[in-house]
Amino acid sequence: MKKVTNDIVKAFDNCVEALSLNELSRRTGVGLYTLRKFASRQTNTIREETWDKLYPHLKPYLIGDGDGIKDLPPRIGPVARRHADLVELCSDQKVLLDAWNALKTSDRNRVLEKLRQKCPDAAPLALESLSADENFLLGAHAALPVEEQEPFVIDAAELAAIEMRKQRRDLF
Q1: Are residues 56 and 22 part of one domain?
Q2: What is the residue-level pLDDT of the chain in tens, covering all 172 positions?
Q3: Are residues 109 and 159 in the same domain?
Q4: Which domain holds residue 57?
Q5: Contacts of 25 (CB under 8 A, 6+ apart)
């Protein structure tokens, strides 16, 4: 039996935030019930065979293990709704942030350039939890004519869906 340390708990939390319990269960073959017990701190030890399945997925998040956490695996589609200070955003803005997070840098740059051409005087939002590009994205989206806002969000979501399919295909 392996003792569950604070570092293991933090690594588990970060891994679950990136993947979800269901995805971690699917990838490792460890049952959801066992993972939920681990997530809710109902256990202080973990069986060696369970640890052997979880360790490859937790390793990038373990501090003091190899080079630490500088080479974290990419998060696919982190949702903006999880940020407590972003609850006031409308659903289109949240979808736009979700799509933005799924895009490659080159696609993000194309979206920003398109917005800069359409809305050169757009004022970015000033939300601390967002990057300058994300604040500009939301500010420029709000500056678009109303009839162009929804199609813009739909186009971004479709572009993100294509990218996520590519990323998922690469993972499996």
Answers
A1: yes
A2: 888 888 888 888 888 887 788 888 888 899 988 888 887 888 888 898 899 888 888 888 887 544 444 444 444 444 444 455 566 778 888 889 888 888 889 999 999 998 999 999 999 988 877 888 999 999 999 999 999 999 999 999 999 889 888 878 877 6
A3: yes
A4: 2-61
A5: 31, 32, 35
